[in-house]
Amino acid sequence: MTDANPTIRTTLRAEPAVPVSGARIAVLVIALAFLIGAPFFVYPIFLMKLLCFALFACAFNVLLGYTGLLSFGHATFFGGAAYFTAHAVKEWGLSPELGILVGVAGAALLGLIMGYFAIRRQGIYFAMITLALSQMFFFFCLQAKFTHGEDGIQSVPRGHFFGLLDLNDSLSMYYTVTAIFVGGLFLIWRFVHSPFGMILRSIRENEPRAISLGYSVARYKLGAFVFSAALAGLAGAVKALVFQFATLTDVAWQMSGEVILMTLLGGIGTIFGPIFGSALVVGLGNYLATTGFPVTIITGIVFMVCVLVFRRGIVGEINATRLAQKLGLADRSSG
Amino acid sequence: MTQVSVERAVSSEPRVVLSARGIRKDFGGFSAVRNVDLDVHHARVHALIGPNGAGKTTVFNLLTKFLQPTAGTILLMGQDITRTPPDKVARLGLVRSFQISAVFPHLSVLDNVRVALQRPNNLAHQFWRPVSALDTLNRRADELLGLVGLTKERDRLAADLSYGRKRVLEIATTLALDPKVLLLDEPLAGMGQEDITVVANLIREVAKTRAVLMVEHNLSVVADLCHFVTVLQRGEILAEGDYETVSRDPRVRIAYMGTEEA
Amino acid sequence: MTMIFGIPLPALLGQLLIGLINGSFYALLSLGLAIIFGMLRIINFAHGAQYMLGAFSAYLLLTFTGIGYWGALILAPILVGILGVVIERLFLRRLYGLDPLYGLLFTFGLALTLEGTFRYFYGSSGQPYAAPAALAGGTNLGFMFMPNYRGWVVVASLIVCIGTWFLIEKTKLGAYLRAATENATLVQVFGVNVPVLLTLTYGLGVALAAFAGVLAAPVYQVSPLMGSNIIIIVFAVVVVGGMGSIMGAIVTGYLLGIAEGLTKVFYPEASSIVIFVIMAFVLLLRPAGLFGREA
Amino acid sequence: MAALLDIKGLNAWYGESHVLHGLDMTIHDGETVTILGRNGVGKTTTLRTITGIIRSRKGQIRFDGKDMLSVPLHRTAHHGIGYVPEERGIFSSLNVLENLMLPPVVGKNGMSVEDIFELFPNLHERRHSPGTRLSGGEQQMLAIARILRTGVRMLLLDEPTEGLAPVIVQRIGEVLKKLKERGLTVLLVEQNFRFASRVADRFYLMDHGQVVSEFPVGELPDRMDTLHHVLGV
Amino acid sequence: AASDGKVKIGILNDQSGVYADFGGKSSVEAAKMAVEDFGGKVLDVPIEIIDADHQNKPDIASNIARQWFDTQQVDAIMELTTSSVALAVQAVAKEKKKIDIVTGAATTDLTGKQCSPYGFHWAYDTYALAVGTGGALVKQGGDSWFFLTADYAFGYSLEEQTSNFVKSNNGKVVGSVRHPLSTTDYSSFLLQAQSSGAKVVGLANAGADTQNAIKQAAEFGLTQSGQRLAALLFTLAEVHGLGLKAAQGLTLTEGFYWDRDDESRKFGERFQKRTGKMPNMIHAGTYSAVLQYLKAVQKAGTDDTEAVSKVLHDMPVDDVFGRGGTVGANGRMFHDMYLLEVKKPEESKKPWDYYKVLATIPGKDAYMDPKKSGCDLVK
Ligand SMILES: Nc1ncnc2c1ncn2[C@@H]1O[C@H](COP(=O)(O)OP(=O)(O)OP(=O)(O)O)[C@@H](O)[C@H]1O
Ligand SMILES: Nc1ncnc2c1ncn2[C@@H]1O[C@H](COP(=O)(O)OP(=O)(O)OP(=O)(O)O)[C@@H](O)[C@H]1O
Ligand SMILES: [Mg+2]
Ligand SMILES: [Mg+2]
């Protein structure tokens, strides 16, 4: 294993489980209150978009932050699920919850296939393989009939959630999305801080040792990969319902780059970092759209600055401050 | 060093648990290991010594399947493991340590041991349960840490331990799996004298109920601890027998021990 | 006429040759990537953008100074190489010793910025650039009409590839570079000025990309996006060849170019993904790549 | 004898942590000097500070009369200092021969490749293998051999016997004696006390980043008690 | 009267991405020219133009569209480059009962299955391109065709529609080859086209793909050997990027050419002063769309969507772009299209003198009959 790199373990390091402190609970309560009240101040559809991307970034972070694997192909799961859900709801007439299920299952399946190939290698090889495979999927989507090429699947009906909640009402849509987001986030948190997550961490720390302890490393990595793919799919599926379309932009490799940026900006290996990161990226994209300043240049510069001076990301930097450590918001290892 | 320890474990049932026949490993044109036959017995400490580059670590890698042998067969408790992947071999009860210390640096000492305990206790796959589910392992983990004298360091990060202590931790982790056969690659290298004594005694203790195969350059420990010695040179077996026999062999003295008394 | 799989032999030969031309670009680009990765442990995502910069420099040299193709073939790689040197000095060197992922992410951002900038100033539809008069026209090879310029592309890329390979694998300089990859401090202790070496290496890799860019300018549209289209394919080439293997990068570049060319004849719909499919198979059968060094 | 290496009041830091606290040391031309000390007292750090790998340092280091503090890292070797690190530093992407030929020749009395292969026949046999495919002992030999070719005047050797078979340790001892005959100055860091006592002219005993005592090989028997106490040998 | 004291038009297009040259910032200029030409005020309230760069992302576009409609009192959105964006925004506009006029996207779905009572398609569509290049070129003698088709829905529909016209004009299609999107090297395909012996090689692709194919066709001497190259979606901006040397002899269809007559030249020159380049059909189309919208508001006497839409459907178009144009029940605007050939470098007398007009296709022939469009607004 010549590409094992010793620095990966020290620079991409995750927070260990920490006993819940008072300050943490306070932060959570405030966040929840904010989520509930937000649509009365901010544009709901923008909020929903934000939540979808935040969930996407968090799912991505499971892989990068907690397994040490940089996937450059996560758009496949995000955009793929969006297509599956859109198709299931529009063409098969499935209800939204079943549509989402189809999207998630599809993304998990894609994750299984891509993961099967990619986990054979580590580090940047892994990144490049996922990139190449997602490019294959892009071409598949481009050419497949059901995606309608560059038009995309349009006018996807939102329907009624569990036959009750009318999602065409933007508030009920918003609270549905919020519930899914919170649920997804909880799943991620639980996954990362579970016995399984513990094994993942040990693999990231020292793979040969984990093997010698009898763990079939490939299966654990694959498990993490599929989990991350499925949740990215959840985000994509919900997004398809929110916007009522699924298009090629979500499966293009630029989207994979964007989610990396979100995670990097917010803080790799932190639970809440990607949320801030995605808020910034999405907000920036929207804001720059009307300023006339080219978005790609700004995005590129943000990327470079982040890597050069800001590697821990927003939440990572906050966690590293004395105050955060004192309040028990931060973890033990990042100080 | 001719003294024989009185404490040597009496081998109650010297059955063969790990056996290799005619194993060979070629790297390109170069064969690092050739025609090596080995029998490792239950309840005995078996030493593998030899000059640097003789192929000791390679033999370890072959036995634990970290390397695939070019030829030969390996049996673990009668089961053919020649084609078995390394993690499976570990699950069958053949566990190794590494020549260069192998811990999980950013886990606490306790967690290092708990990770090893997770699998035998069926706590490895649960992604839906909280980590606190692992607290049931604490008792056993603390026991193991106590055994190697790491109780004080229980909550420190493994990375913060000194080299010698890391090696001790590695042994505790290995023991956590309760292996049938234990392969130790230079377990005492880099340890201070106190640790050497602790660990040597520990090896002696655990060997009462399992087989141990170890590579070691510290000949006084080998003399003290091992029931059987195999000397490897240039990938082949040069001599075998108990320490006295082997150390008197002139070929071994020339190839390995040197002319002076070690 | 001899037929192979229902394709006349001459046509097949023609397609093989075309594949080789395509492969010339892949080889040059993957060579540069492999060098930079091999020495700096950085996946140079900006390689495509630097290829584009090469082509654009040729165009700019022509428009603003009147320097034509031949001058640009020398000057553009030097200019872009110098830019590479500056980038390495100012930024990349801060990333050495970190996880290589950071290098990848940084150069990704760099690529976005470079492409964005050119798109901002030159639009997305590109700029015209013509082949030099000496290489205009074509030759009838019997089985196909071969534009002279394409013949030159093959020759030029072969020369540069072999020259670079020799420099890295067969000279002392190459040994320094490879050693510095692993332990730069120690090589410095031995008395070698490693920082300068690394800077030059990055410059060289970037210059190779720019060289490919100038070669490409008369064939492909000189456009800000030309690099981002090709770079992912080149990544796949490098994975197939085995990262860090110079020879691997070159040979695989040509081979995959040919494979792609043939796919365009037999099953054109798949020509965009054939390289990725090959990559998947190679990974299954030889995870280290065709030429990778791994036990 | 002239002082070849003259160190006064040397302090060195790893980031915040202060490791060397005013170290004094003088090595004369042609001497073999061994630094003894327990794990972590700063022996390796001393060598790394002399070569300049550790840049946050204060005090005085003079080599052959020249101030070394301002010399950039890649010029140290050219002044005549060769370093064999604890972890050996064999390059895996280079084969044995390339590893051997890697350091530029900086002085005229370097050994020829033939001499080196005669001294280490193993290396000759494996000369085309990748460097790190050698066993630990072979790598150690290669690391020493590599510096001998360059013709430095002074060799800094960090624990050359760690993890080596007794017979090899013995060979390295012989090599060091031969080097001494050739007039090389050697500063050796060793934990293997028996080995050190065979090759050294003089000893420094270190503790807490300082030299705590210094004595010639002749005084060794009288000092055994202190050494027992400090080193646990 | 205007509902909120002003009439506000949003230009939503790609300003930094692959289609930036299609319309981009210059289209905003075109829109402003229309406002000026109209007099800056309508129904005594000021007219305001705002714009945004949708980066080719439908989600950003639909977000902006919603915000414009809901919080910024935008009355109509125009241009909407690329079909995924156009369809998404048209859906939003329909839901919000607001007007959208598409000039930047090609898909006929906008006035077909996904048509909207408030949605209009102004400049061109795949059908018109097919009629122009496919139908008109056969009449000029190009009666055997070989297609180089981008391997996705857009390419297929261009190829299919074009071959229909080729066939219905008694031409024949001798073959076709599909190439993946973003292919850089076309030589294999060009060789196949060459050996097919077809008189016309039709490029059913777009953007950089078309440009590369044309450039390499010149290299392989396709036109010298008597074949004719026809680009199905190509505009002046791209011809400019390619240069006449590579583009000469190319046939294509556009809905506008600045050097058509005095009126268009005057418009072109004004536009060039402001943007540095001559307008293509998208720029001119956006100009026309804005102007016509303002006229409709004026005529309806209100900016109410229903009323203005009705006027837009009924009122003939008469401006530099849409001379004698009419609007169908499905929102399609019918106007003349031009079959154009790119001049040789030596034929070009002045900057931007790029085209010879081979034929004019009257509006009623250029576009699909609304009855056949599949739009359920057409009874
Ligand atoms: N890279 C480093 N960063 C921070 N502290 C370090 C680093 N390397 C060594 N140290 C610390 O500096 C002190 C001296 O280390 P040094 O390596 O010089 O010891 P040594 O005497 O060579 O020990 P040994 O016999 O184990 O090799 C030790 O306490 C060690 O923990
Ligand atoms: N992956 C490999 N490829 C090629 N040669 C190898 C490889 N691994 C080991 N070797 C060679 O095989 C021989 C035996 O190596 P091994 O590491 O087994 O020695 P060892 O007996 O453990 O030595 P030491 O006591 O120094 O650790 C050495 O000459 C080494 O160079
Ligand atoms: Mg070994
Ligand atoms: Mg040391």
UniProtKB/TrEMBL annotation, chain A:
Pfam families: BPD_transp_2 (PF02653). Signal peptide: none annotated. PANTHER family: ABC TRANSPORTER ATP-BINDING PROTEIN (PTHR30482:SF17), HIGH-AFFINITY BRANCHED-CHAIN AMINO ACID TRANSPORT SYSTEM PERMEASE (PTHR30482). Keywords: Cell membrane, Membrane, Transmembrane, Transmembrane helix. It is a multi-pass membrane protein. This is Branched-chain amino acid ABC transporter permease. The chain crosses the membrane at residues 25-46, 53-78, 98-117, 124-146, 173-192, 222-247, 259-284, 291-310. InterPro entries: ABC_transp_permease, LivM-like. The keyword Transmembrane applies. It comes from the Bacteria. It is found in: Cell membrane. The lineage of its organism: Bacteria, Pseudomonadati, Pseudomonadota, Alphaproteobacteria, Hyphomicrobiales.
Automatic annotation (TrEMBL), chain B:
InterPro entries: AAA+_ATPase, ABC_AA/LPS_Transport, ABC_transporter-like_ATP-bd, BCA_ABC_TP_C, P-loop_NTPase. Residues 18-259 form the ABC transporter domain. Keywords: ATP-binding, Nucleotide-binding, Transport. CDD domains: ABC_Mj1267_LivG_branched (cd03219). Gene3D superfamilies: P-loop containing nucleotide triphosphate hydrolases (3.40.50.300). One of its GO terms (molecular function) is ATP binding. SMART domains: AAA (SM00382). This is ABC transporter ATP-binding protein. It comes from Rhizobium oryzicola.
From TrEMBL, chain C:
It comes from Rhizobium oryzicola. It holds the Pfam family BPD_transp_2. The keyword Magnesium does not apply. The lineage of its organism: Bacteria, Pseudomonadati, Pseudomonadota, Alphaproteobacteria, Hyphomicrobiales. The chain crosses the membrane at residues 12-37, 49-67, 73-92, 101-122, 149-168, 200-220, 232-259, 265-285. It is found in: Cell membrane. It is a multi-pass membrane protein. Belongs to the binding-protein-dependent transport system permease family. LivHM subfamily. This is Branched-chain amino acid ABC transporter permease. The keyword rRNA-binding does not apply. Keywords: Amino-acid transport, Cell membrane, Membrane, Transmembrane, Transmembrane helix, Transport. It comes from the Bacteria.
Automatic annotation (TrEMBL), chain D:
Residues 5-233 form the ABC transporter domain. The keyword Cell membrane does not apply. GO terms for molecular function: ATP binding. Keywords: Amino-acid transport, ATP-binding, Nucleotide-binding, Transport. Gene3D superfamilies: P-loop containing nucleotide triphosphate hydrolases (3.40.50.300). The keyword Transport applies. SUPFAM superfamilies: P-loop containing nucleoside triphosphate hydrolases. PROSITE patterns: ABC_TRANSPORTER_1, ABC_TRANSPORTER_2. Belongs to the ABC transporter superfamily. This is ABC transporter ATP-binding protein. It comes from Rhizobium oryzicola. The lineage of its organism: Bacteria, Pseudomonadati, Pseudomonadota, Alphaproteobacteria, Hyphomicrobiales.
